[in-house]
Amino acid sequence: EANLIYQRLTAGEATFEEVVEAHSIDGWSKPRGGLIANYLQGERRLSYLQDIVFNLEIGEISKPFPSPGGYAIVEVLATYPERLREFSEVADIVMSYLITQRKEDRLKAVLDEIRASVEIEWIDENFTYMKDTAEAKKEKEVRRFTTTS
142: helix, coil or strand? Predict the structure, then answer.
């Protein structure tokens, strides 16, 4: 199906927006006509697009390629010159990264403290009474459907 869509696009039989509306399964980009604005080189968002998108020229349509949930086709509408972004443009991203990093560091420290303060003792005989999850589920199903007279 993706190859047929690609053929229709390259033959000029349909616009990109039309095929997105008719065939896209992506809930985020479909309402936007497939448009992914300001996609930057090196972004982790939609990382499967990186190698494809940045090797296309303006107006070029990619051949279908594997993506999460199926196949994707991309068309490059514009490119922007490489530049350093102002801090105001990336402040939210930086702040989010720092907060996440501090949370992860604190969680690791708390878990290390807990591990150091707890002694775990395994008593093998206790495991002899444990049932395999699959066995226990099977027994439960058998009991549910068994009737007594």
Answer: helix
* CA dist., res. 17 & res. 79, Å (int): 19
pTM score:
0.53
Contact in structure between 75 and 91 (CB atoms under 8 Å)? no
Closest CA to 76 of 89, 87, 62: 62
Task: Compute how many other C-beta atoms are within 10 angstroms of the C-beta atom of residue 64.
Answer: 16
Average pLDDT, consecutive stretches of 10 residues, N- to C-terminus, the chain (149 residues): 91 90 84 83 83 90 89 88 84 92 96 88 71 74 61
Q: What is the DSSP letter of 29?
A: T
Q: In angstroms, what CA-CA distances link 55 with 67, 77, 78, 110?
A: 17, 13, 13, 45
Provide the token pair at 54: 């940045």
Q: Are 24 and 18 in contact (CB under 8 A)?
A: no
